[in-house]
């Protein structure tokens, strides 16, 4: 006897088409690029830190 929900679970490999893979890749790459670019940006508070600690 199988579990009732197991008959509704169908593993499909064609759920993600090549176009969606490309879109997903570029979305993830854009998020990564934005995160790396923004981490190199100077802080808005940098002049205050420089004045206090210089």
Describe it for me?
This protein has 54 residues and is mainly α. It contains 2 helices and no strands. It is rod-shaped and about 55 Å long. 0% of the residues are buried. The model has no long low-confidence stretch (mean pLDDT 81).
Helix and strand topology:
Elements: H1 18-39, H2 46-53
The residue-averaged pLDDT reads: 81
* Main sheet properties: none
Radius of gyration: 24 Å
What is the CA–CA distance across the termini? 75 Å
Described by the principal axes of the CA atoms, the overall outline is rod-shaped
Strand content: under 5%
* Helix content percent band: 55-70%
One letter per element, helices H and strands E, the order comes to HH
Q: Extract low-pLDDT stretches.
A: none
List how many beta strands DSSP finds: 0
Tally of helical segments: 2
Assign the structural class, choosing from mainly alpha, mainly beta, alpha/beta, alpha+beta, or little secondary structure.
mainly alpha
Can I get a quick summary?
Helices cover 56% and strands 0% of the residues. It is mainly alpha-helical and 54 residues long.
Keywords, please?
2 helices
